[in-house]
Amino acid sequence: MSERAAPFHCPYCGDEDLRPNEQGHGAWECAACSRAFQLKFLGLLAPGASGTTPGREEI
Ligand SMILES: [Zn+2]
Asked: Which domain of life is it from (predicted)?
């Protein structure tokens, strides 16, 4: 398995007709709306970052 993320839907129009763009890794273009975009891996979340948020319920 490659580590490249493949989008299933265009983030702009929601179409599924996506194809890799020549710009480089993570670059995709939508045939429906003619937009090109790039996915970027920002890094792993810190432990607990996606879980509870302490203090939110204390307001
Ligand atoms: Zn699109």
From this structure: Bacteria
Strands (E), the chain: 18-20, 27-30, 36-38
Sequence length of the chain is 59
All residues at 6 or more sequence positions from 33 whose CB lies less than 8 Å from its CB, including other chains? 10, 12, 13, 15
| Dist. CA 15 → ligand 1 center (Å) | 5
- Going from the Cα of 1 to the center of ligand 1, the distance in angstroms, rounded, reads 26
The pLDDT tens digits of the residues spanning 14-23 come to 999 999 999 8
pTM summary value: 0.63
Distance 52 CA to ligand 1 centre (A): 34
Token digits for 34?
A: 């003619």
How is residue 50 written in tokens? 């996606």
